[in-house]
Amino acid sequence: MSALLLLFLEFLKMGALTFGGGYAMIPFIEETVLRHDWMTTTELVDFIAVSESTPGAFAVNISTYVGSEVEGLLGALLATVGLVLPPFLIIILIAKVYERIKSNTLVQGAMLGLKSTVVGLIAATVLSVGKTIFFSEGINAAVFQSAEFYVSLGIFAAALFLLLVKKLSPILIIAGSAVIGILFGYTGVIKV
Description:
By secondary structure, the protein is mainly α. It contains seven helices and no strands. It has helices at 3-17, 22-35, 41-52, 58-101, 105-134, 147-164, 170-187.
């Protein structure tokens, strides 16, 4: 099977089988990317940060990037089309019938199950990405002696506080954290 066809089919499968949007797709994207050896976990986590801080839909940004890394411009196009085609077709179908079926007990039960699963998938993503960011070399005493660990932990705590308590715009938080990271890297507090 050609790499282009494989890219398209893998992202088509993700688009068809993942509920809950871009963040819920991260475990599937991570598994697929690592299984095919398209990039490393660190590269993927770096691009998750870039995808979050650039305009556009998160999952589309990631699929476009992975496709581009694997097969250039055509790969980016096929991965993106593969990802968005199933939800596009499904949402058109659902929009036609949802008003008639939304009060159905089975539909309400399915929605409860789907919403709960999406929260679980997002939590798994947080733990996976957090492990890569905070404990990329494994959990050992050296991690807790590194400036990078404490800088990352401080930026994480500040972002969480500003988002949940102060209700600051995510755009401002992302921009501010990038500036802080640049300053720490520039001053040599952390290695880049």
